[in-house]
Specification:
By secondary structure, the chain is α/β, with parallel strands linked by helices. It has four domains: 13-144, Roll (PH-domain like), CATH 2.30.29; 173-409, Tandem AAA-ATPase domain (Rossmann fold, 3-Layer(aba) Sandwich); 417-423 and 495-689 and 763-799, 3-Layer(aba) Sandwich (Rossmann fold), CATH 3.40.50.300; 424-490, no CATH class. It is built from 25 helices and 24 strands. The strands form four sheets. The chain has an eight-stranded mixed sheet with strand order 19-20-18-21-22-17-24-23, with helices on both faces. Strands 4-3-2-1-6-5-7 form a seven-stranded antiparallel sheet, with no helix packed on it. Strands 12-13-11-14-15-10-16 form a seven-stranded parallel sheet, sandwiched between helices. Strand 21 (588-591), helix 19 (598-605) and strand 22 form a beta-alpha-beta unit. The protein binds adenosine-5'-triphosphate (ATP). Adenosine-5'-triphosphate is lined by residues 157-158, 192-194, 197, 220, 222-228, 267, 270, 355, 580, 582, 606, 610-612. Residues 695-727 have a biased composition (Acidic residues). Residues 695-755 are annotated as: Disordered. Residues 207-375 form the Helicase ATP-binding domain.
Length: 802
């Protein structure tokens, strides 16, 4: 923004005021009647005994001179003062500067010149004025009352009471101190920063401060405040002198998914409050040219990945010093055009922000590491070799440039989180058709998987889809339509889907509890179906899926968050709405179906349990018992332990690479189980809700039995050996026996593997309706205290409380 010209109309150079009494950091702008003022810049308001001056931030320009202020205590933070044709808003009081000729001031003002923190501005507007009335001026200064709630726009944001600024403080800086050299971080952040955020800022700063550049990945869990850490660290880097580093950076390019452009804008607004906005947000191609012609103006440029990759050549014309890529896992494919394009920007300091640094394999991780430090990691082949041969070395290298903290570090600042996995009984149609699909199994596994998932949500979804394909001439799976006839013809009723029946009860209960809910699904048709259900229940539906224009998304989210009304429900598509959204207006979230990629589910589930949330959060994952959905859940647990942890990744795990055996497993249907996942982990709790450590006695009993079993086995082995000696002649029999025993060993090994890979579930409590007392207790705790709970067969429960 261009600097406002000096206005000296009524100012006589020979008449420079002296005897500075107080000075304030302010925002200034032309006086107007607009409700939401647009400030033009930062300034300094200096009070003298007989007048006041409004100067530019660097004090080089005098913007206006006006009458003095009647009472200095009127100039509290947030106050708006009208100085003729200019208005200012007081930000904070600064230390006064001695002037060459200091007029004597009356004894009662003397304390104004003392060093901080001598003065606490009186709280009460009726307190005795510190400054006598200053007269003699033609245009009296009008002091407007502070806008309601304006003084402290950040109050409540951190969930902490506002910390009062010291009466005198340096406007710009505060210091983050640890054993190493301190880092000066702008005060607008410092007072709000959580301990993990201070560490994060130190990490980014240290990794990027090198003269020749540097790279880092901030891989914190969702909601830990990656944006505030980025803003604070990059701002500190750009204020080099104050941090004892050479002027290494003055321009920072922030590339974000288009759905998050407005989020970033809102974050800058939030932390810069009404100060001069430090970023340019490019939303359309013509903005790029406008930016290029005024590129000296502001330090930050925010642009979507889409625009960045389209206009990469233009961006190359700007000399950026820092590159930030939000949701940087978008760059995981090293050969993608997007990654290649952005990597070709010659920006020496690179920061990737992502909650999910590795979603599938080490090649993806390499792509990110190689992006931030192009010369450090050698070739991909070398890196993959390192991964398999020297995991310790690999960890060392990763630790050096990547920082990852889980949501637990912020737990003390957030309300409780309760997570549930509810296993919902398949309806009769769901059961029948699922069995048929398992028998049907053709080479086209992908579309069958799709149908099986739809069936788990509601049989009508599958039927409609098949029918539509059939009518359009695609008759590949038309024979499946035969299974839908007579009693098995879905009508779309709620009872035809176990999960939908459970959801119906949930929604009713949430409304009674006066809490808003978010419902998430992977499928548009499923969201349509849920939308119908919600409308039937007379909910007002907010819906964010791929069809909602990017520029409208933030507005939608804001509307939902601002109006807390339990008659509102937010429907979210996992893919379109997963990242970056803040849906803290809701405290209940239902994940109606799971994604193959646990990272997507985690992203979606993190929307409500995040900074700013004030209510305890309940997150429910619905799974249709015994179906493909349980298999998907099991794969997720094996892959990441239900959290996106980097060290438990399986290489090459994607839908398209399933082996025949895996496919067979995925399509196997367990109609008689109350929870196939619980069966597999062989937990001894029996669904009572007790941890294994709490059922020691029965455990020991079991162990006793196991010993007996072991004895039997060893007897069998001995017997076998004996047989072998005795009947050498019948070698074929012996060989068969050996093979059999080898096979059973292999199966045991495999079972052991499965058990181990599901170990994560031992952190959760397991409940079965076979134990009515604990079951009712669980349901009441989860907020679903309905009589009609026989749609569920099992539940897992995890809380952040203990
Ligand atoms: N210390 C803090 N005090 C108050 N609010 C905070 C603080 N840290 C972060 N927030 C707020 O919490 C919200 C979540 O932060 P942010 O979006 O940066 O998280 P994130 O780690 O990027 O999550 P995601 O990966 O989901 O986008 C933001 O609105 C942010 O302003």
């Amino acid at each position: 923004m261009s600097r406002v010209p000096v206005q000296l109309d009524d100012y006589n150079g020979s008449d420079l005021p002296t005897g500075e009494i107080a000075r304030f950091q302010v925002l200034y702008g032309k006086t107007s009647t607009r409700k939401h003022k647009i400030w033009e810049g930062d300034g300094i308001l200096i009070l003298y005994s007989d007048c006041c001056l409004l100067k530019s931030d660097d004090e080089k320009d005098i913007i206006c001179r006006s009458a003095g202020v009647r009472r200095i205590d009127d100039l509290e933070d947030g106050r708006i003062v009208v100085l003729g044709s200019w208005s200012v808003e007081v930000q904070e009081r600064l230390e006064t500067k001695p002037t060459a000729v200091v007029k004597p001031v009356k004894a009662e003002h003397e304390n104004l010149n003392r060093k901080r923190p001598a003065i606490e501005l009186p709280e009460s507007p009726r307190a005795k004025p510190l400054i006598p009335v200053i007269q003699k001026f033609k245009s009296p200064i009008a002091i407007l009352p502070a806008k309601k709630g304006f003084k402290n726009p950040l109050l409540g944001m951190s969930g902490e009471p506002e910390q009062k600024l010291p009466a005198f403080c340096l406007n710009e800086q505060d210091v983050l101190q640890n054993q190493q050299s301190p880092i000066c971080v702008d005060q607008r952040f410092v007072k709000f920063l959580r301990p993990h955020q201070k560490d994060g800022i130190r990490f980014i700063f240290d990794k990027l401060k090198g003269e020749c550049g540097g790279g880092a990945i901030l891989a914190d869990d969702m909601g830990l405040g990656k944006s505030i850490q980025t803003m604070a660290a990059t701002w500190a880097l750009m204020r080099g002198a104050k941090n004892n580093i050479n002027n290494i950076a003055s321009k920072c390019l922030i590339i974000v998914p288009s759905s998050l452009v407005n989020n970033w804008k809102a974050e800058f607004n939030k932390w810069w409050r009404n100060m001069r906005f430090p970023a340019v947000v490019l939303k359309k191609p013509s903005d790029i040219d406008a930016y290029l012609s005024t590129q000296k103006s502001l330090p930050y440029l925010i642009i979507s990945y889409d625009m960045a990759s389209r206009y990469i050549q233009k961006l190359k014309a700007v000399r950026f010093d820092i590159l930030v890529c939000d949701e940087g896992h978008k760059l995981k494919n090293k050969d993608s055009k997007l990654r290649k394009g952005i990597a070709s920007l010659e920006i020496p300091r690179r920061l990737i922000l992502t909650g999910t640094p590795m979603q599938n394999d080490f090649e993806e991780l390499f792509s990110l590491l190689d992006f931030i430090r192009p010369t450090n990691f050698g070739t991909c082949a070398k890196f993959l070799k390192l991964c398999s041969e020297s995991p310790d070395k690999l960890n060392e290298m990763i630790d050096e440039c990547m920082l990852r903290r889980t949501a637990e570090v912020n737990q003390s600042h957030l309300p409780e989180k309760h997570e549930y996995i509810f296993f919902c009984k398949a309806s009769e149609i769901q059961q029948k058709v699922h069995e048929e699909i398992c028998d049907y199994m053709t080479g086209d596994a992908l579309s069958l998987i799709f149908y099986a998932r739809q069936l788990s949500n509601h049989p009508k979804l599958m039927y409609d889809n098949l029918l539509e394909k059939h009518e359009k001439g695609n008759k590949k799976h038309s024979s499946l339509l035969n299974h839908f006839s007579g009693k098995m013809m879905p009508t779309g009723g709620v009872k035809e889907s176990g999960k939908l029946s459970v959801l119906l009860e949930m929604l009713k209960c949430f409304r009674l509890l006066n809490e808003c809910a978010v419902i998430v699904s992977n499928f548009i048709e499923t969201l349509d179906m849920i939308e119908q259900l919600c409308s039937y229940l007379q909910f007002k539906v907010y819906r964010l899926d791929g069809k909602v224009a990017v520029q409208d998304r933030q507005k939608l989210v804001k509307q939902f968050n601002d109006v807390h009304d339990a008659h509102n429900v937010f429907l979210l598509s996992t893919k379109a709405g997963g990242v970056g959204l803040n849906l803290i207006g809701a405290s209940r979230l239902v994940l109606f179906d799971s994604d193959w990629n646990p990272a997507n589910d985690q992203q979606a589930m993190a929307r409500i349990w995040r900074d700013g949330q004030i209510r305890p959060c309940h997150i429910y994952r619905l799974v249709t018992t015994g179906t493909i959905e349980e298999k998907m859940l099991q794969r997720q647990i094996k892959k990441t332990g239900l959290g996106c942890v980097i060290d438990a990744i399986e290489v090459g795990d994607s839908v398209s690479t399933f082996s025949d055996e895996e496919l067979h497993d995925i399509f196997s249907f367990s109609p008689d189980t109350e929870c196939n996942t619980h069966d597999l982990c062989e937990c001894k709790c029996d669904g009572t809700g007790m941890f294994e450590s709490e059922i020691v006695d029965s455990d020991e009993e079991e162990e006793g039995n196991e010993e007996e079993d072991d004895d039997e086995t060893s007897f069998d082995d001995e017997q076998l050996e004996e047989d072998e000696d005795t009947f050498v002649a019948d070698s074929q029999v012996v060989r068969n026996e050996k093979e059999k025993s080898k096979k059973s060993e292999e199966i045991e090994e495999k079972d052991e593997e499965t058990r181990a890979s599901l170990a994560e579930l031992s952190r959760w409590r397991h409940f079965s309706p076979r134990h009515p007392d604990t079951w009712r207790h669980l349901l009441i705790n989860s907020g679903i205290s309905t009589q009609n709970d026989n749609e569920m067969s099992f539940a897992f429960y995890l809380t952040s409380q203990f």
